[in-house]
Structure formats: structure tokens, C-alpha cells
Amino acid sequence: MRVLLQLSDIRKSYGARPILEGATLSLLEGQKVGVIGRNGAGKSTLCRIITGHEEADGGTVSRSTALRLSYLEQHDPYQLEETVIGFLQRYTGKEEWECGKMAGRFQLKHGLLEAAIGSLSGGYRTRVKLTSMLLADPNYLILDEPTNYLDLKTLILLEEFLQDWDGGFMIVSHDREFLKKTCENTLEVESGECTLYPGSVEDYLVFKEEQRLHAESHNRNVELKQKQLQQFVDRFRAKASKAAQARSKMKQIEKLKKIDVDHPLSNVRIKIPAVDKKNGIALRCEELAIGYPDKLVADRIDLEVMQGDHVAVLGDNGQGKTTFLRTIAGDLAAKGGSHRWGYNLRVGYYAQHVYATLRPDLTVYEYLSGTAAPGVTRQEILNLAGSFLFKGDDVDKKVGVLSGGERARACLAGMLLTKSQILLLDEPTNHLDFETVEALGRALKSFDGTIFFISHDRTFVNLVATRIIEVAGGRVRSYPGNYEEYVYSLESIIRQELSEDATPSAAKPAAAPPKSDYQARKERESEKRKLGTQIRRIDERIAAYKKEWQEIHDLFFNDPGAWSRERNDRYDELQRMIDREEQDWLKATQRLEELSEGQAG
After folding, report:
1. Burial class (CB within 10 angstroms; exposed 0-12, middle 13-18, buried 19+) of 425
2. Terminal CA-to-CA distance of the chain, rounded, Å?
3. 312 and 464 in contact (C-beta within 8 Å)?
4. Directed axis angle between helix 364-371 and helix 404-416, to 10°?
5. Quick one: how many helices (H) and strands (E) in the chain?
6. How confident is the model at residue 296 (pLDDT cuts 50, 70, 90)?
7. Which residues pair with 469 in a beta bridge?
């Protein structure tokens, strides 16, 4: 494969703060790279240097003449009054049928093509930007945090597209599931340098952990050897007969070097102050209607949530997830009906833009200690601050000098210190790197209180959620299955829609150009690759379901007293899921065989 882009010894600083210090990287044609690293490590800076939006302070960027680079615009290139199809034609110079065909890949079809962009939700506007990016006919994409604020459906559509796309890309994301499903290589930006690993993000983390354990073992051996040599030197350096040997041992000590152990990606630990565990009903909604003075968003909401439930509030952007959370938080008046919390429960609310209200004259520590519940110790405050990347002197920084992301992290830490029995979290992961996201997920999983949260990060939702509430079509209702089933059902619907003709009839040309043999062969190969990926993913799910099913089966067999209604329901549910997956596997393999036989014929 050709080298499309090469960075050599890239250096970049902001004021006195170095970000990249000698970063070197080669990107190959068709290479699919997931970029990971701590917040502030330089991931976005690297992307901006590649796209030409920033200049490096030193080093060289070499671009092949074969490179056709495209990137997801951070600003909005459209006018809100423009129609989707009108913007795409103006911005890309492509024919209407070409724009319609690409837009169909992101389910922008039928009336949506003629809709004003200003009338669309944020998720659909992002789909418009993705479509315009791909109409430029690129062979390499730069995507910096494309999953932020994307609803799950748009995320799956992007994922499906990238799995099927022939070109290469570099994606910065804190969504491990997204990186795992789309990227074959992993690039870590750390300590000003770039490390490219030829494997998935999960393989890389295993490799990093093995490296760390090896380094720590080496360092322990070095310390032991140094101690032994030093004892010899201390004992014999004053004796003339042993002086030469002592000097030799001193040189050996100087030659023994430890391996630097940088902070490993998996070392974030978050400990949320414990709350009193309570039983009974946490929230009851009766005929609740939510919305704004001039707009009804959803009504006839009847819900009962028990204390200790961890509720994921899911649905497409614009359907009312945040409106529901604001209403039960008391931040927005209900339009009808009622909702009430259980007796003597304290509610903590983390809103997406609450960080804008922080007093700029407070230090981080002053803000956190002011929000902390009585009895929370200084060390607990410092520990939680450190978990959210406020380490050492960072807690003495004034809020006024913090970035938006840093303020958001301070707000989240402050809310967790309130020791509220109810936590309402609206997109808590947006300003966190994925190791902190997963540490927060693990901490919330063991939280004894009740949680309502909105998040599109599948790893985080999988870690935390014990129950699903779906907001869609003017209704807010409990989803009967678990999160894995919810995602699977959504993926199935999207695959079905994508398998149909995505080109809106109004956008089709009177006589579409006939497909050449080359085009037909390329489409067959594309479908075969997609089917292969689908079959691998089904195999993985079947293996996981069968493992859990067997564990419950063995438990029932060995310990009849372990039977419970909940466990039995899960046992039956797993069997249904296995049967369904095996049917999908059979259909996919049959179709793959048909394509292979047709190609051979």
C-alpha cells in the first residue's frame, strides 16, 4: 500500500506548554486508524495539522499527490434556510441524483431532502455534513470526535458506512465500541509522541498492560540488584584491598537503568462517596406531559422507577430525552400530569451546559468543597478531583481560566460529591477520554442510589444501565429488553433500510447511467466484505450468549436453590437470542455463498 501522508518530527506548543514533541507517523492507503490518548495529549492538534488548519512549529508534513483528503467540518458549512439537497448540490457541485444517492446512505431521503436544514435535529444535521464530506470523493478521512452528540441511530449508520468503505481514515473517539467496530489499527498520542500499533484498541490495551507489567518487573529486579551492589560498596569501599571491586560495583550501579512507566491508560479509578441505600419507589410519573410553553414534546407518561435502578434514557436526538430529564429534575415545568420522588431523596442534576454558570473567581478545590456534602473529607475531594484529571496544583486553578471541557469535568465531580441518592446525568461522558469514561462507568455501576442518564457511548451504557427508557414519537416508555437487545433491534432495522433502495424517487435521474462490469464487481465485493463483518459479529454475540446461558444452566444443575424468576427469565431470553442470531447467521452465510458462486460462475 502507498504512503498517503507522512509526518516527521512534528513539534507544536501553545505558549510555554508543549503538546507534540517529535511526533512521527506514516498513514497508508486504506489504513483504518483509531486515535486514543488522554485529554490534552494532542489528538485534535494532530488532526488540525494534518488537515492544514494549523501549522506545526517544527517538522514536516508530506502529502502524496494521490491523497484526496476530507474531514468532518467542525463549523457548519450550510445556511439554516437551505434545503438538504440544495446545500449538497451547492457545496459539492455534484448532480442531484449523486447527492440523493449518498444522502440515502445516512437515511436522508424522501421529504428530508427537501426540508430546510434549520428544521432538522442535531443528529440529522451531522448526517448532512457527513454526506457532503463523502461527496468530495476522498480516499482518506480525518474524523475528530465524530461520535460526540450523535444519537445511536446516526452512530450506527456511520459505523455501517465506515465498515463498508474502501478508503482509509483516522478517527479520534472516546467511544471504545465505535473504534473496535471500525478501526484495524490504533494510534496512541502520549507524551508528545505517536505510537502506531497494528491491531484493535482492545489488543493495544492488552499490549500496553503487558508492557507495563514487564517494566515493573524489570524495575523491581533493578532495585534489588542496586541494593545488593550498594551493600557491597558500603561494606568494602574503605578497605584498600577491596577498593577496586567497590569502584567496579559503583559503575555497575550507574549502568543499571529503570524503564520509565508512564501512566497506563487503565489506571483511572473513581470512588464516589457512598450514599445511604434505600428501598421503595424512587420516581412515579402519572399522565405526565413534558415540553415548552409553545410545544408539547411528549405526554401520557406513566412510569414507576424503583430505588437502585440505573436507567438509560435513549432515543434519537430531538425526541425529548433532555426535556424529560429537565422536567423530573424540576428545571422545567411539566405541561400536565404529575411526577414525584420518593420520600427524603436528594436529587443531583448534571446538565450539558451547567458549567457556564460556575463562579470564575473560585478555585477548583473551593468549588468542589463548596458542593461536597457534610462529612466528605478533604482527601476524598482531592481523590475525586484527581480522577477527573485535576491533579496536584490543578485544584488551585481559578475556574475562570479553565476550558469548557475542564469546567464540565469539575461540575461532574462536584455533583458526585453531593452524596445525592438520585443522579440525573445528561451526556456526562462528552468531555472525558475513554479511560475516564469507563472508570466513571465502573464507579456508577456499583453506586447504591438511583441513576437516570443520557449517553450515546455504548460501552458506558452497557456498564451502567440496568433498565432502558425510550423517548420516541411523543412517548416515554420502558423498553422491555436490555441494552444489548435495544442496540441489536436498532441495527437490524437500519440494515433492513440500507438493503432497500436508498435513493429517493424524486432524486433519481430519468435514465441512471448503466452499471459497468467493474461497478457491479465492486458492489459485489463490498457486499461480501459487509457480510463477512456481519457474520463475525454474529459469531461473537452467539459465543457470549451461549457462555452466559451455560453458566446459568450449570448453576441450576448444581444448585437447585439458585433458581429465581429473574434468573429463569434471563435463561429463556438468552435461548431466544441465540435462536434469533443463528437464523441471521444462516441468512448471511447463504447470501455470501450466493455471491461467491455468482462470481465464480
Report:
1. buried
2. 30
3. yes
4. 30
5. 17, 18
6. very high
7. 313, 478
Closest CA to 272 of 465, 60, 394, 418: 418
**What is the C-alpha to C-alpha distance for residues 272 and 380, in angstroms, rounded to an integer?**
9
Evaluate whether 30 touches 5 at the Cβ level (below 8 Å).
Answer: no
**Are the CB atoms for 335 and 291 separated by under 8 Å?**
yes
Residues 6 or more apart from 394 whose CB is under 8 A from it?
364, 385
Grid coordinates standing for 226?
542496586
Alpha helices in 432-564, H assignment, sequence order:
434-445, 458-464, 483-499, 517-558
Question: Given the DSSP bridges, would you call strands 347-350 and 422-426 parallel, antiparallel or unpaired?
Answer: parallel
Q: Which amino acid is at 545?
A: Y
Contact partners, residue 582, CB within 8 Å, separation at least 6: 542
Residue in the structure block whose three cell numbers are 454474529: 538
In the numeric block, the cell 452512530 is attached to 155
d(CA 34, CA 200): 8
Residue 208, φ and ψ in degrees, nearest 5: -60, -40
Residues 234, 238, 239, 243, Cα dihedral to 10°: 80
Q: What is the pLDDT of residues 126-148, one digit of tens each?
A: 889 999 999 988 999 999 888 77
Q: What average pLDDT does the structure give for the chain?
A: 84
Q: Residue 513 carries which side chain, given as an amino acid letter? A: P
| Cβ within 8 Å of residue 594, ≥6 positions away | none
Average pLDDT on 383-388 reads 87
Cell matching residue 418: 453531593
Q: How far apart are CA 150 and CA 157, in angstroms?
A: 11
Helix (H) or strand (E) segment spanning residue 382: helix 378-387
* Distance from C-alpha of 381 to C-alpha of 375, rounded to nearest angstrom: 11
Confidence (pTM): 0.70
Say if CB 322 and CB 352 are below 8 A apart. yes
The phi, psi pair for 84, rounded to 5°, reads: -60, -50
* 510 — pLDDT class (breaks 50, 70, 90): very low
Rg (CA), the chain: 28
Pairwise CA distance, residues 98 & 113, whole Å:
13
Q: Please give the helix or strand (H or E) that residue 516 lies within, else none.
A: none
| CA dihedral sign, ordered 293, 296, 297, 300 | positive
* Crossing angle of the two packed helices 96-104 and 122-134, in degrees rounded to 10: 120
Query: Are 503 and 101 within 8 A, CB to CB?
Result: yes
Amino acid at 268: V
Q: Is there a contact between 312 and 463 (Cβ–Cβ < 8 Å)? A: no
Measured CA angle at 198 (ends 55, 433), to 5 deg: 60
The amino acid present at 574, given as its one-letter code, is L
- Of 594, 31, 407, nearest in space to 415 by CA: 407
Rounded-to-integer distance, Cα 125 and Cα 122, Å:
5
Is the CB of residue 193 less than 8 Å from the CB of residue 531? Answer: no
Helix or strand run (H / E) with residue 37: none
d(CA 34, CA 169): 8
Distance CA 457, CA 447 (A): 19
Dihedral (C-alpha) 314, 318, 320, 321: value to the nearest 10 degrees?
30
